[in-house]
Amino acid sequence: MRWRTRAAGVVAVTFVASLASAQFRGGRGLDEHIASPEAYDAKFHYCRAVYRPNLRGDGGNWLTDYPLADIDLSVRLSELTKINVAFDGPHQPRHLIVELTSDELSHQCPIIIMQEVGRLLFSSEDAEHLRNYLLKGGFLWVDDFWGSYAWNVWQTEIRKVFPAAEYPIVDLEASHPLYHTMFDLDGVPQIPGIGTWLGSGQTSERGTDSAQVHSRAIVDRYGRIMVFMTHNTDVSDSWEREGEDPEYFNRFSVDGYRVAVNVMLYAMTH
């Protein structure tokens, strides 16, 4: 019991510290982007979901690629599609941070995105709220988790939301409509974090254990994707790092935006 209490304290401290220490452009804090009823304006918001850290997990945390991935993708969606993206000013999209147990999840976010879900831990309350959100038409995209260990952690947690017998995880074939909403894609490419690419020239961040990209999904009884999983690739880094290296942009960011546009359009039309 003493060990459990100490572990719970570590989780709480780690979670709060990650919130308190994070800052973004202009020196403003995270609290300005936490979803609230006042933020709802019937426009599109990039919704990043907060999750509890799993002490036995693998990878970064829910803040990975924040805030530039959220900002850059929102701007590109406004440029490349007819999606009515919410802005506070020029090149200042109103992206949101959403707690899974918040009422704002279903009111404001047709799509939520999670990063590094090999580090994720769902409580029973998280799982219940997420299940209700997804069954009512919501869409979850998880990205940037690498290797078999991170996959196993994620699979254990998502099974708290959807049991395997009723909701199997399936591999998406190249003919799936998601790959053809705007751009015709063969699948999801392997996109490394820019540090891996510049440091080694490799695309697999975990060697042979992450050599193959997995594009997988959980669908509802009508065949609509509720959960889209891009494993062994870091699509969101291609948005965040688009302006840092011309070669990285040309090789990875263009394809990363193609994937993102297709995913967003699929999620908002199915």
Characteristics:
disordered N terminus, alpha/beta, 270 residues, two-stranded antiparallel ribbon, Rossmann fold, 11 strands, 7-stranded mixed sheet, 38% helix
Oligomeric grouping of the chains: single chain
Q: Per DSSP, what share of the residues sits in E-state strands of 2 or more residues?
A: 15-25%
Low-pLDDT ranges: 1-28
Count of distinct structural domains = 1
Number of strands: 11
What does this molecule look like?
The protein has a seven-stranded mixed β-sheet. The protein is built from eight helices and eleven strands. Helix content is 38%, strand content 16%.
Question: Which helices and strands appear, and what pairs or packs with what?
Answer:
Elements: H1 2-21, E1 47-50, E2 52-53, H2 68-80, E3 87-89, E4 92-93, E5 96-99, H3 104-108, E6 111-115, E7 120-121, H4 124-135, E8 139-143, H5 147-161, E9 170-171, H6 194-200, E10 214-219, E11 225-231, H7 235-240, H8 246-269
Parallel strand pairs: 1-5, 1-6, 6-8, 8-11
Antiparallel strand pairs: 2-7, 3-4, 9-10, 10-11
Helix pairs in contact: 4-5
Summarize the structure.
The chain has helices at 2-21, 68-80, 104-108, 124-135, 147-161, 194-200, 235-240, 246-269, and strands at residues 47-50, 52-53, 87-89, 92-93, 96-99, 111-115, 120-121, 139-143, 170-171, 214-219, 225-231.
